[in-house]
Specification:
Oligomer: single chain
Strand content: 25-35%
Bound molecules: adenosine-5'-triphosphate
Number of helices: 6
CATH architecture: 3-Layer(aba) Sandwich
Order of helices and strands: EEEHEEEHHHEHEHEE
Low-confidence stretches: none
CATH topology: Rossmann fold
Distance between the termini: 26 Å
Shape: globular
Number of domains: 1
Structural class: alpha/beta
Amino acid sequence: MSSEAILRFENISKNINRTEILKNINFEVERGEVVGIIGKNGSGKTTLLKLASGLSYPTKGEIYFFDKKLEPGFVGRLPQNIGVLIETPSFISNLSGFDNLYYLSKIRNIISKDDITETIKKVGLDSNNKNPFKTYSLGMKQRLGIAQAIMENPDLILFDEPTNALDDTGVEIFANIISEYKQKGKSFILVSHNMDEIKLFCDKVYKIDNYTLKLQDKI
Ligand SMILES: Nc1ncnc2c1ncn2[C@@H]1O[C@H](COP(=O)(O)OP(=O)(O)OP(=O)(O)O)[C@@H](O)[C@H]1O
């Protein structure tokens, strides 16, 4: 692994129900880098994020995160240092945004209530809002999902269509978060269909095409 690489996929293949989804994928994410992933619907982008997060395991090959191999197994072995927003964020419908994040924070127990309040403010939500999650608009749900992904200050953040449902202010807030966390040396994998967003944020872009990953020269 190059000295600054924090995540490495080595000859990764993934089959689901005997159908090949990804084939022989190799790539690295370096410290402070935003790596974009593009590709058609159903090409395997979310599958790749699930592999990177340890939520799913490869059929073949190895994934290293800070030189530690991601191993299949129980939840306790999931990497602690990866923040994830994949697909529509799911939270407990009767709890407020704050209480949802607080409940989730208790799994790892590495952040305080003040940290959560600060993160909720960072995504432009009201940390004193006691309304249950089920009353949130789509954009508010997405903002809370972004808050959950970043709240524990992880070294790698995986975002699947993060600006879906965000208004202009939400997109601006998201841009500020990327730039702030990049400066702190955090890395991202960003899956998006929005090419403007990909061009704006990504240092490197790969396209999933025909089960494999191709580095894009020009985006
Ligand atoms: N749990 C599953 N069971 C069966 N097939 C699955 C499962 N998860 C994903 N697939 C299949 O794997 C392929 C890749 O799906 P994936 O969600 O990774 O695509 P994607 O590139 O993220 O698509 P989109 O742009 O529509 O979000 C699809 O053909 C999908 O049907």
